[in-house]
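Why do we care about 3D structure at all? Because function follows from shape, and shape follows, mostly, from sequence. That is the central idea of this module. The next example makes it concrete: a single protein chain, its amino acid sequence, and then its structure expressed as tokens.
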Amino acid sequence: MLGIDHIFRLLRVGIVLVRYDALFPREYQERLPIPWRVVAQGLRLFARRRRPKSPGARLAMALEKLGPAYVKLGQFLATRPDIIGVTAAQDLGRLKDRLPPFARDRALDTINAELGATESLFGAISEALAAASIAQVHMSVHPRSGTMAVKVLRPRIERKLRREMDALRFGAKLIEFFSVRSRRLEPVQFVETVATALERELDLRLEAGAAAEFREVAAKDGFLAVPEIDWSRSSKRVLTQTWVEGVSLTDSAGLDRAGADRPALAVKVTRGFLAAALDYGFFHADMHEGNLIYGKDGQLWVVDFGIMGRIGKKERRYLAEILYGFLRRDYRRVAEVHGEAGYVPEKYTVDEFAQALRAIGEPIFGKTADEVSMSRLLLQLFDVTHLFGMHLRPELVLLQKTMVQVEGVARGLDPKHDMWGAARPIVERWVKRELGAEAMGRRVMDEAAGGIAALRRLPQTLAALEGAAEEIRRGPPPAERARFQWMSFFVGFAVGGVLVFMAYYAGL
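And the structure:
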């Protein structure tokens, strides 16, 4: 019976996709086998006449129609431009995660069940001010604590999402079973990734933790500001934070009325994202206009921490050196960095890859800022990596996707925003700190500290060797004695090497 239920749910999905011409988009018809072209032409007769021009926009509208699980699926597809292309990813990145609000009384029931004593904790609570697929936001005005934003999960959302995700798992398995080519994209694993992320979003304590961590990161540079979490009024299904009074970046006229310095805001968006990613390896991965607020205090506030990204030190070095290489037009170094990171198959030479990168980078130089598109650059970079058979790490793809999103926000604020110019100080300070003379000095000190620690352990090591030597002296066979002599030689050689190392660096 469960299988039949999944089939009916998937049939509904198929019907909605057909209505929006998103199942077999006409733009991709030539890529289909001839029998499937005939099927696609027939299904297109049932499509709505008025529909957006781009396939990504049509898919976004269909997913909004299908509900919360599919909106989240679309948001995660938007993080994989390497699979669906940058243009489609941008269209999906504008998914309107909005639904009609549920009743205020239902929200109060959830707050009471989670925290109790609603009036004493929150004071007056407004009707819903914004409603998304998983939760909605209310304003709370407390006589002593002031104004707060209260995010509350939708009633029974866990059960609804579980049913839809089970159907999607079933569909992913069918796709892998019937389509060998689809297995390269691992649809089952992708659905599991979405399901895991959804489970995290259904626990608002995890979002609160991400917000608190990002608040610490953002405060170090001051480009972005993050509301403070009220832990005493937060739980698994309720999240409370300080209220931000200001204008959403979606309200262009409101920004003008507030006297916002648009070029300065564009620079803050770019540098705030890049500084967090490069310096701390933790970044907001959903930086669209709806999650950014120009505060009355003049600060740029970022909200909604459901989708966050992390990158390790190796990946940060990779990203910084790529950006720095493009800024200096050093394509060979960019190619070498790809090779050092293990992304370029051995059958290709550095010179071949550098030549391809030159074809990407050279056209952007000598042009004004509004003629240079990060989106176009990344699209070409994805094409080249695909041509060379490269597989980038998912966290890097998420980072690059967010860079495209950030560029869109910055250009919306200031059409002449120079993203390269805004990024340069952040990239250069990272390169100076991590790859320059200061970094070399720190590495020397770290290695020296390791040598000192080894010297401190030397007496214990020698005592252990002396004990072992005594045991061998009491009766080891000749072969074991010879082995111990060789081991003693190598240990002595290693200790001598440490001493030479320390003497050399002490002379520096």
